[in-house]
TrEMBL record:
Biased composition regions of type Basic and acidic residues, renumbered to the chain: 157-168
Naturally occurring in which organism (per UniProt): Leucobacter triazinivorans
GO MF annotations, alphabetized: ATP binding; DNA binding; zinc ion binding
GO terms, biological process: negative regulation of DNA-templated transcription
Protein name: Transcriptional repressor NrdR
Keywords: ATP-binding, DNA-binding, Metal-binding, Nucleotide-binding, Repressor, Transcription, Transcription regulation, Zinc, Zinc-finger
Family: Belongs to the NrdR family.
Amino acid sequence: MHCPFCRHPDSRVIDSRTADDGLSIRRRRQCPECGRRFTTTETASLTVIKRSGVVEPFSREKVMSGVRKACQGRPVTEADLAVLAQQVEESVRSSGIAQFDANEIGLAILPHLRELDEVAYLRFASVYQAFESLADFDAAIAELRAHPGGGSDSDASDSRADARTPEE
């Protein structure tokens, strides 16, 4: 680490502390050349590789934006979306990998979205799991019924689904 005052190429760490709920480390350093002290913050960077090949930093806001579209008309608040984006970032970071395909981020969203709202989950899953037919939706709905416990309105969605005809 270069000293920001004299540009000496080395510095000594005096103190280290975690910051931002453990997502970064704050270090207090001292330059052996000029003796001045300064603070650095270290974070592990997450990058996303888009389909076009472009690499960009992970963004909670982009996660929220994509999920917001799936949640249109559903009882999901902005606070719910913020919590979901934080959960997704934490699960991605816990893998220990620093670079992900955009599709992998989408797949990481699914379990958290299923807990938040099952209808939004189906909308989102239809894109990220590449549903190609009604049979794919039927299989996803059967999986939701076989393993309930996702969204808060799972009983209501089951009764509405049973009342529909196959053409709907």
